[in-house]
Amino acid sequence: QLLYLIGLTCAWVLRDHEVDYVDGAPGGVPCRRDAVHRGVQGRRGAPLVLSAVGRERTPITGVTGTIVLDLPVYHAVAAELTEDGAAALSADAHVEYVEEDAKLYPAQSQYEPNLPYGIKMVQADQVDEAASSPQKVCIIDSGLDLGHPEFSQQRGNIGGTDDRGTGRWSTDRDGHGTHCAGTIFGLRNGEGVIGVNPEGNLKVHIIKVFGDSGGWSYSSSLVTAVDRCLAAGSTILSLSLGGGSSLSKKRAFDRAEAQGVLSFAAAGNNGNTAYAYPASYGSVVSVGSVDSRARLSGFSQRNDEVELVAPGSSVLSTAPRGRYTSMSGTSMATPHASGVAALVWNNVPTCTAAEVRRGLARTARDLGSRGRDNSFGHGLVQAKAALEYLRSTCGVPPPPTPAPTPVDFAALTLREDAGRTAYALSGTISDGWATYPDATRRELTVRGASCAVR
């Protein structure tokens, strides 16, 4: 049996291991409006029974499976099913979708010895950390070695949520989560490393989705982790992980964005143009990696969803049992970016998440091709530049999109192209072609934008 995410067309409640509809639904599906969600009464290993509730209880399908995880906010459940069972559910009118519960992996490339350099590259050393922390960073990873000298003195600002499957959030035998945490808030204590927020003021919440051996986790676990971050009052999510896409996962990050949360995730380490998720969702900032000379790391993904880059090659940070080590990957770049967001946002707490995201993009140090590109996105995240920008722009509406530039008819050169009349454009839009099929019209279309013809 495989693990699947099942989304229903109504909200539902698990009662005696049965899923009951409780809200209205499309298609005239009978739904009960007087019930409320009571949480998971079915536990892992309990039988899965889906049923609609109207005037009488009607089974949705004869498919049986095993409950793994309840996702009530998203009207979904994770369950173990056979392939035939998944196909049968997909064909049922009561079921919105059935998709494989995609595995997630830490976005880690390799261990390499070197000296730390990222704090200066992202200008974190040029910004004073705020004395208070209205923002809270939620790190979703392999946990945290809370006994490490960099964190043990910050216990008052660090919380977390335990998980029955992965264990206590305050332990981390794998080390991936502890390494990322050190980059975000390693303490200025005269030893080891410092993080982007080094003064011990940052509020942090830890969710452990990877076990002691690292390995992988499921999308359903990530959806639950996001919900737990939101419940803890987190305003920034830092995810050094990635994998395939799922509708439930996308909805989780869209919901976080709608609640004013700013999410960062690793772009991926395959060194190609493939998309990794959640980084490639529009509601998440995708973070690529550069080395100490601001060159693109060979493993960093390159695609049109990459928004920012940060140091990710040979990054020195914390490791379990009081140690320090260097690691490489977009996993290491992500906490630089999320850490900068926290550093800056705590200094301008009246800014919105959208304003902070826009500020980070507009003030990033341009690398590679001029302007945004698929390798570096907007460029290398810069804390000082972003803070200066946000202090003058927060609360100010962005400028309106300028009207299309009029095109002088004399500036157009006629040519025949496959039976249609086309015009080469010069001047401000000289790199485009416009189709002008009807000489009686006073408009032409340039890449979807309407331009007046004089």
Give a written overview of the molecule.
This protein is α/β, with parallel strands linked by helices and 454 residues long. Helices cover 20% and strands 28% of the residues. It contains nine helices and 26 strands. It has helices at 83-90, 118-121, 149-152, 176-185, 219-231, 247-258, 330-347, 353-362, 383-393; strands at residues 2-8, 12-15, 18-21, 47-53, 57-59, 65-71, 76-81, 95-100, 103-106, 110-111, 136-141, 158-161, 203-208, 217-218, 236-239, 241-243, 262-266, 284-290, 306-311, 315-319, 323-328, 413-417, 420-424, 433-435, 443-446, 449-452. The strands form five sheets. Strands 1, 2, 3, 4, 5, 6, 7 and 8 form an eight-stranded mixed beta sheet that branches. It has a seven-stranded parallel beta sheet with strand order 12-13-11-15-17-18-19, with helices on both faces. Strand 24 (433-435) and strand 25 form a beta hairpin. Helix 4 runs parallel beside helix 7 (330-347). The termini are far apart.
Topology of helices and strands:
Elements: E1 2-8, E2 12-15, E3 18-21, E4 47-53, E5 57-59, E6 65-71, E7 76-81, H1 83-90, E8 95-100, E9 103-106, E10 110-111, H2 118-121, E11 136-141, H3 149-152, E12 158-161, H4 176-185, E13 203-208, E14 217-218, H5 219-231, E15 236-239, E16 241-243, H6 247-258, E17 262-266, E18 284-290, E19 306-311, E20 315-319, E21 323-328, H7 330-347, H8 353-362, H9 383-393, E22 413-417, E23 420-424, E24 433-435, E25 443-446, E26 449-452
Parallel strand pairs: 3-4, 11-13, 11-15, 12-13, 15-17, 17-18, 18-19
Antiparallel strand pairs: 1-7, 1-8, 2-3, 4-5, 4-6, 6-7, 9-14, 9-16, 10-21, 20-21, 22-23, 23-24, 24-25, 25-26
